[in-house]
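Q: Predict the bound structure with P1T.
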Amino acid sequence: MKGFTTKAIHVGEEPKRMQYGDVVSPIHLSTTFAKESLDEVESGYVYSRSANPTRDNLEKKLAALENAKYALAFSSGLAAETTILLSLLKKGDHVIAFDDLYGGTKRLFNRVMERFGIGFTYVDLRDLALFKKSIMESSRMVWIETPTNPLMKLADIKAISELAHEHGLIVVVDNTFASPYFQQPLTLGADIVVHSVTKYLGGHSDVVGGAVMVSDDELHEKMRFHQNAVGAILSPFDSWLVMRGVKTLAVRMERHQYNALRIAEYLENHPLVDKVYYPGLESHPQHDLAKRQMKGYGGMLSFELKGGLEEARKFVEALEIFALAESLGGVESLIEIPALMTHASVPREERLKVGIKDSLIRVSVGIEDLEDLIEDMEKGFKNL
Ligand code: P1T
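A: Predicted complex:
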């Protein structure tokens, strides 16, 4: 087995297999594939929703990065999540989910899946005893984000997987924030990994996509069937863009983390900042767990200014390099206020219960020059 970056660059790109020896695999746009005779209509590629050579190449690459046997690529992270839920659960089943999740994931659970009779309980999964207490007769799955969006809480993937498996639960980890470069949940015992490919895997804010990685044959079979039967697939062009993005994942993640750690330290020492959430800081209450289960801490952080929403607004609106925008994981730095943007679909009462204050600011630290990013933040502080 080769190293992470060698796999990221070479898997799915096989010049010897190409007609002209291309070192970059081409984009197969064809929606359908002609056969020599009726004897062959069921063999090889048939129709691009079911399977497409470019998407296949991407799926091979993505599987390799998570040390998974299989990967499936979808048209968005939420489409990938939908496939996991619809293909593996049925009416009456119950899911235990981390109480801090991307707002759109909670919206999918509460406003779509609940209509089909799937129940959700939100639990602070930092606490194993609480997790154990929340397991019911009908529980089938535990849904983890770690680090969480936006509060950077961590769940112990190994400990939760062991307990979950004793009760026959499927363990799903949304690994979007860490990326497979810094964390590989399947090797820690999880059953399924899901990604918003839109973020670090794509890496350049130009593709909306999702992926599921899995090694179990039966789980894979069920989700592969749904990928075709429901049809929320990633297009060949988007698949190719993600293949291109993934090749530089390792170097991007190193730089995201270099900048993020220094910005987290800068913010932590700033007199106008109340609290910084970044797992790489010694002050993070789960820093030891981060060191144990992650190879690095990533490029996402959030913080609270002294004051309230008005101060947060003044801060983010004064910045010039950090774009005021949702999403994350691209080379460019982004900043946002979860209560007004990414988590606006979560009721305020629920947000406050998990710790998302109105004044919380979330930062996706890009790979620009650190000095420029800090100088930009100075502008925010000067505007207060
Ligand atoms: O946007 P989409 O590709 O459908 O992915 C959804 C999703 C899933 N999981 C996590 C952890 C996410 O952060 C997201 C999308 N998040 C944002 C758009 C955001 O700004 O947080």
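A: The chain has two domains: 4-246, 249-382.
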